[in-house]
Specification:
Blueprint lengths: L1 H9 L9 E7 L2 E7 L5 H5 L4 H13 L6 E7 L1
Parallel strand pairs: 2-3
Antiparallel strand pairs: 1-2
Keywords: Cell shape, Cell wall biogenesis/degradation, Chaperone, Cytoplasm, RNA-binding
Subunit structure: Forms a complex with KhpB.
Protein name: RNA-binding protein KhpA
Length: 76
């Protein structure tokens, strides 16, 4: 899932080299913590959180193949 998230986000941001993704496993859940450059934070979140919600939806759909719940947390 990390690489799926990286692929999506690198097409949104201006500084793809500053994308950091930490993966934490907690039982049947996986948390992907996404950190991007401060200048790109607004692009990743989007107006009213629309882009962030879309990213979470796509990752959630892709995660159905893994039988795990995957969530995306955007950290600053």
């Amino acid at each position: 899932m990390k690489e799926v998230l990286r692929t999506i986000v690198k097409h949104i941001v201006d500084n793809p080299e500053e994308i950091l993704i930490n993966q934490k496993e907690e039982g049947q859940s996986t948390i992907l913590e996404l950190k991007v450059a401060a200048d790109d934070m607004g692009k990743v979140i989007g107006k009213g959180g629309r882009v962030a919600k879309a990213i979470r939806t796509v990752i959630g759909a892709a995660a159905t193949k893994t039988d795990k719940h995957v969530s995306v947390k955007i950290v600053d």
